[in-house]
Fold:
Amino acid sequence: MTQSFRLETGGLINRDKKISFKFNGKNYFGYEGDTLASALIANGVHLIGRSFKYHRPRGFFGAGVDEPYAIVQLYRNGETEPNIKATEQELFEGLEAKSVNCWPSVNFDVGAINNFLKIFLPAGFYYKTFMWPKSFWYKIYEPFIRKAAGLGTASIKHDKERYEHKYEYCDLLITGSGPSGLASAYSAAKNGAKVILAEDKSRFGGTLLTSDVNIGNQSGKEWADSIVSELKEMSNVTIKNRSQVFGYYDHNMLVMSERISDHLPETKKYHPKQRLWYIRAKEVLISSGSIERPIVFGNNDTPGVMLSSAAKEYMKVYGVLVGKKPIVFTNNDSGYETAIEFKKNGVDPIILDTRKEPQSEIIEEAKNMNIDVKNSYVVVAAQGYKKVKSADIAKISDDKEELGSVENIKCDCICVSGFWTPTIHLASQSGNKTKFNEDIDAFVPGTSKQNEKTLGAANGIYTLEETLKDSFERGNQLSKEITNNDNKVSFPNVVEKKSTVHDKFWCVPLPKGKNYKRFLDFQNDVAVSDIEIALKEGYRSIEHVKRYTTLGMATDQGKTSNLNGLQLVSKIENKVVPAVGHTTFRPPYSPVSIGAIVGREVGKHSKPTRKSPMHSWHEKNNAVFVDAGVWLRPRYYKRGDENLFEASKREAKNVRTNVGVCDVTTLGKIDIKGPDAAELLNRVYTNAWLKLPVGKARYGVMLREDGIVMDDGTTTRISENHYHMTTTTAQAANVLSHLEYYLQLVWPELNVNVVSTTEQWAGAAIAGPKSREVLKKLFPNSDVTNEGLPFMGYMEGDLFGVKAKIFRISFSGELAYEVNVESDYGYFMWEKIIEVGEEFGIQPYGTEALSTLRIEMGHVAGSELDGRTIPYDNSLEGLLSKKKDFIGKRSLSRKAFAAEDRQKIVGVVPLDKKTSIPEGSHLVKDSNAPLPNPKLGYISASCWSVEHDNPFSLAILKDGKNMIGEKLFVMSPLKNKVIPVEIVSSHYVDPKGERVRS
Amino acid sequence: MLHIKCPHCGMRSQNEFSYGGDATVKRPELGEEISDHDWDNFVYNRKSLRGKHWELWQHLSGCRQWIKVQRDTATHEIFKTLKANEDIS
Structure:
């Protein structure tokens, strides 16, 4: 296909570089520097998609971020991405795009039947229609709506692109590189301020690229280019194109998405696709410009109806004509600029100006060029289905209420200009109290909440001279306060055409007997009639009207629709626009990819992975790992064809009969030093600590203030004022914060220091009846006999030249020791233990066997200390000191905690001694009771008891202390299991605790 | 994201801190006789204030110090930060 709408010359594209691309399966050509939109228009393609609700044909309305409906599905380098604006997507070789919202094709779309049913699809249609019958919702309505809705399809493949995050600080962040952005950045940079200038588009310069002005004897573009190249040379300036500041958050933090590779056929090696910048700026200058406002008329969504500024941009930037028989429909002078541009390119436009007798320099120029100008004229309706073919036009009365006789004139595009709406999204997000400016009938930023100022068109200033003056000054003044430099920039001579006032006309009345759809919100298919219905139905607040009609929602966020919607509501309600107010502008300003938001924190990188110093040994010995918080721990060591059950049983059994070794490096360790260390322990643990001798360990339980068990562990007195505390793996960080809280805020008088030493020590638990034999070999010079190192004893030893700490503590319930060495020697220690233990049949055991051992012993762990249980529930009430107060003690005397039938830990054995009990199952008295069956308790942990060779579980059971011997049922609706069980003591093995003392 | 001035480290981003609740709550002395009502107020009952409020934060990924922050809960404005041992005036 030839580019029949491409101008012979002109534009900022590179005509030497042809680029081929595909749209809806068809091949086209464009040039380097095109957007997908400009290249399609150059090829005469105006039908790009179907609308959201009525599936009406959709073309192009804007030329950039303002575009409400030219949204496509993009295919790039084997990936696909929905929700791409054709007006923003730069063309690259091999680009492929498809229409969305249409089936089977954009030319013949079945959903378009909605257009003929539109009388049945008014505002709030979904709320009204799909309410009943209720049973229809899941099976019929929802799937139907889901299929019909949406703007493209998200990929379900893993995204192989890389996205990065960057944190940056600056003095001034300037959002937008139009005249105000460039001027303020330039004067601030000259004062030495650290400046970030962000431009959403690929080209710097904003409106300077398209307006016919002269600055310091240069064209607008030349002046912009010279400023940009100077800024790029300055080391205190970061200037970024393809970078949109989309969110303004608290404490002057703004977020910017930089599209690094989206314009390339594929991402370069070592480059990310996109980068998200978190920028903390001392001052923010918002120079985001303004967006042209449409005038509302019949069928104003027909492809070929577009913003007049967009038509101009397509000509001036891309050398593309949006039509060869244009109508310019305007209420202000901007439309004339577009008409003049058409004329310069050999196309004869007709201007319909709603104003009666406007006079200005620009209008004069247009008339001198013999452009046909019709005053007091309006477009009543566009005609044509997939493309504008003609326009119904009419004269309009001075009061803008009455239409004259309607005539039809041929045209192939209608360029609309309803004046300009400042882009106040960022200012509004920052908390700025916006105010209504009568002169431009739009909201502008008002009182700032944060350090931001809005410049130029975004602030409602539409003359270049005033914009530049104000921006140079602002940039200079704000930077001066930060850097104390005052390098004045000389103000250039500005030549621009003078314009006259606009007409506050925004909506063409319907001619008699016609019922054209007049659209306000093009993305969400909201027409004038929808707002009228919403108001008739009693919706008053603009926020409610928005949600009921979807006006200004979705990715568009009301960029072109907001003000016209407000005008309509204020007209019907007979209120002034500021009294109606505007809805909240929410970030992001325009869509940001999920990839950019997530950054590098994907999959395994979403959290750090912690490995013990012995990790590589476990790997070499067929360990199967499990995530324990952020740690990777061996779950079991696979031998031959063993599965988890077989392996863990073997490992646990070996601990009970011989000796096993388990990597316990992950346990939290806190070093506690200071003369008041014992006093601290005495206050945070429930039991007594003041008399613990040096060289002894003690088991302790910590509560929260509400009496719930927080954590347990052993703490050892290393020397007079030095303690070594251990915590559970999961609670290590919380316990440290807990201690710091009390030391820093509640008892600052205590002279104690705490520090985490979890990573400094590698730990191995050696457990089993033969563990002492292993110890003897490991520490031949130490007295590790029962007398030399009794239960809960501690000593230091020499492990083949490495200093080690030996604790005689036990989690498995067997005679056991924990040996700690400095982490760097962990691997060495482990190998030595395996080596000397060989003759005693030592085997490493993983977390599964560890659990089995502790469960059948009735030792509580995380599944019992789950944030819902008090010491009594865990049979730990013996550790509650009566003589002293401690954290959480007062809460234990609360009524429910002291109840006679309070829940308590018990053991559970299936009557058949065979059926495994699923964890999380409920305990009930009668398995056939009507639902909801009263729940007496729940299974907290299950194992296969290696001692008794049958299943055994721990449960937290109501009135547990009186339930031993009772027969109950375990029910697991999830696993569809009902198991008759007997309640037994939670101490299923060695209830007297003789083994640990042997 | 808030920007919080740690009295020990200077201005830092919120993601280095963890929130620690109302800074004006005083823990009853250990061993102090206290009614159920007063104890419940200490453990559970908190005012959800709109406006200026003293709260605790811990500079978890920094110096690990607990600090006191006077913040407006509606606007997020931070007026003052204090070290743990400094009194709220």
